[in-house]
Design brief:
heterodimer; A: 10 strands; 37% helix; globular; B: mainly alpha; 83% helix; 0% strand; elongated
């Protein structure tokens, strides 16, 4: 790991015109030949939050995993900060990309402190800097250090685990954050709470974020743009405003779903 | 002469044999862990190696112990010394539960945890050493526990090739049709097995990963 990698907050000194993440005719097929994703063309700008919306198995998680090279594209290319993900070391790439998954994936044998400091420790930060960073992060996600530092994941509620998961992903201040169904395992009330907090975090941190979800409401709430993925293809790309007037059939199905919920929510 | 008197009179020899026994089992177990854990990791990592490795360990397990000691006798370096031979045979027996449990422990680690570890940029080696192995400790230890208890029993047969241990009393007792002599070997051996089982059981519970 070179010492001079950009670690400045916000990340890139790239011109605004160049997307931070770019899919160029990217596709992924399983070894047995079945395509999970094909011909994806998509660019995510710096500081933008893109939500990929779709059913389970539509290929949205596959798209996400192409970004941090958990999977490698079988066709086309995926570029992160202008470089193909296949160039260079995957470990180095992943350390610069925060990653949050549905089950959070906190290490059960690590305390909150150890979980959050994982990447800084892998990057061999001096101990003092690690400690102050952990405190900073806990504060950022709204957990008291005194109370939570030495707890284990099983001693946390679902919402607290989720917050620790986000803190862990942000630990080394990566310019990019990938989130796979990040709030999927939470009950509706906690989810709303954590989503609101996250919205606030988004505004303050200005990261480039890609979120995968199957919740329309979540997509509308958190996304600057929403990409609808169906059967391995991108079928539409909208701002939340445009989304509600889209005519594409899969998107329209989502809209009618939202409308139905609105109707149930009461008269008027 | 009753049993207690016999034990009192021969306590020095019994103690000596017990120590020999512990030594045989201890060295054999160290060897088995040193070989079995890496093999278990290999089985978990390379599923195509599971069949040959587990198959091999399984075959070793099915050879009657007396025959295994006999088989190893003509092996050049091993056959030179009785204790060497006994330790090798005992380690071979202990291998299967250790390999199997190590592999089971590692493949049993939640896929989400492995996924998160990979996504955060841990190397394969870091994932193994910092995540998978620590989370597998209690399963591994359960295998080591089974293997140890098994080995304490089988080690009595090591006396047949002159490796000493508590089997000496048992074989002598059988030859002389002397029950007291047999019990002088069998009782300490049984106690050893119980003690090992208890101590390793305590460790196993201590290392139980917290459920999330």
């Amino acid at each position: 790991m070179s010492a001079d990698t950009e670690r400045t907050s916000g990340g890139s000194s790239l011109p605004d015109s160049q997307p931070v993440i770019e899919f160029r005719h990217a596709g992924y097929r399983l070894p047995n030949g079945r395509a999970l994703l094909h011909d994806l063309n998509l660019a995510v700008q710096g500081g933008e939050t893109l939500v990929l919306l779709g059913r389970s198995g539509a290929g949205k998680s596959t798209a996400l995993k192409l970004i941090n090279r958990m999977l490698e594209p079988s066709e086309g290319a995926v570029l992160v900060e202008g470089r193909s993900t296949l160039e260079g070391d995957p470990i180095e790439l992943r350390r610069r990309i925060g990653y949050v998954i549905q089950e959070v994936g906190l290490f059960p044998h690590f305390t909150v402190e150890q979980n959050i400091s994982l990447v800084p420790r892998l990057e061999r930060w001096p101990e003092e800097r690690v400690r102050s960073r952990v405190g900073e992060l806990l504060q950022l996600v709204g957990l008291s250090a005194a109370e939570f530092l030495h707890r284990y994941p099983h001693q946390l509620s679902g919402g607290q685990r989720q917050r620790v998961g986000v803190a862990r992903a942000l630990a080394a201040d990566p310019p990019i954050l990938l989130m796979d169904e990040p709030f999927g395992a939470l009950d509706p009330l906690t989810r709303a709470e954590v989503q609101a907090e996250f919205q606030d975090l988004q505004r303050r941190l200005k990261k480039t974020i890609v979120i995968v979800t199957h919740h329309v409401a979540e997509a509308l709430l958190l996304g600057d743009r929403i990409g609808v993925i169906d059967a391995g293809a991108l079928v539409g790309l909208y701002t939340p405003k445009d989304f509600m007037s889209a005519t594409e059939p899969v998107t329209a199905a989502y809209i009618s779903n939202v409308r139905m919920l609105e109707k149930m929510e009461g008269p008027g | 002469m009753n049993l207690l008197e016999y034990f009192a009179r021969h306590h020095r020899e019994i103690l000596q044999a017990t120590l020999e026994h512990v030594w045989l089992v201890g060295i054999a177990m160290l060897l088995a862990v040193a070989v079995g854990v890496p093999l278990g990791v290999l089985v978990a990592r390379r599923p195509w190696l599971a069949k040959p490795i587990l198959g091999g360990a399984n075959i070793a397990e099915t050879i009657p112990s007396l025959a295994l000691f006999g088989f190893l006798l003509p092996v050049p370096w091993l056959g030179d010394r009785a204790d060497r031979l006994a330790i090798a045979a005992l380690a071979l027996y202990a291998l299967l539960p250790i390999i199997r449990n190590t592999a089971a422990g590692i493949t049993g680690v939640d896929a989400a945890i492995r996924d998160a570890a990979r996504g955060m940029g841990m190397t394969e080696r870091q994932i193994l050493l910092q995540v998978e192995l620590p989370l597998s400790f209690s399963t591994m230890l359960a295998g080591i526990r089974v293997a140890t208890v098994l080995t304490v029993g089988i080690a009595t047969i090591a006396a047949a090739v002159g490796a000493g241990g508590l089997g000496e009393f048992i074989f002598r007792g059988l030859a002389m049709v002397n029950n007291q002599l047999i019990l002088a070997g069998a009782i300490p051996a049984a106690l050893l097995a119980l003690i090992a089982d208890f101590l390793l059981g305590v460790c196993e519970r201590r290392l139980q990963p917290a459920r999330s």
